[in-house]
Amino acid sequence: MTSHNAARERPPVSAGRPVRAGAPIEEGWQIEGDSAEAYETYLASAFRPWADDLIARAAVREGERVLDVACGTGIVARQAAPKVGSAGSVTGLDVNAGMLSVARTRAAGLHPAIEWRQASALEMPFPGEAFDVAFCEQALQFFSDPLAALREMHRVLAPGGRVAVNVCRPIEYSPAYLALADALTRHVGAEAGAMMRSPFPRWTVDELRGLIANAGFGLVRVTIEPGMLRYPSTGEFLRREAVSSPLAAALSALDAQSRGALIRELQSALSNRVDDEGIACALELYVAVGTKAQ
Question: Within 13 Å, how many C-alpha atoms sit on residue 243's CB side?
Fold first, then answer.
């Protein structure tokens, strides 16, 4: 669940030094050349249950107009499309051209066809009251101004429209990721550790509720939802985080001794999370829903 950079809204996942396809991190372990496709394969697909949960909480109905804000490779948009049917519409918005390219490919043949727009969530290219539901999965924490993004969502929603978002809880509630962040800090550097921590904002339930309410939404409800992500091994946990994010550049630059020390520290830290299917990584989310007044 690696950050795309907390300072900007979903910057390109290949940010930093270009990643050479096949650059070794560990013997038998290769970095993939297309980070956006890797993000879809390893992270977006893993979050499908949470995407379905958001759609259910917003009670998406046939004929509604849905907006997926900071859509990435479009998992929420794709899951919403069958719910709105041919009478409805789905639009995915993201600043990242690479993510949108993968989104278009993965959504080919869906009905209704999803419209993909490259633009910032802080300044959406839509008129007011253009949508009935706005989703934002695992992106609000990356915006430079989350309140401004929520106010834009409020602006483009029709009266009675719903917003549904999820974000990670503080990182101590997801201890495997805390262990990874600490190990990255020691073996790669402070920037890599901070990158790993950035998907986990320090918000409390009250702070997230207040943020959404301050954007103009009422009937705001925030819940804590525990979940689990699984990885076949410690090395695969690290590899998937690397290939799906800017961490790839920093990790591919490590020498063999440093890579080995990083892997060994992670194996020790995560030993109590190993079972017969690999590594079980607990992940806690906030899920929030609000409504625009009629």
Answer: 25
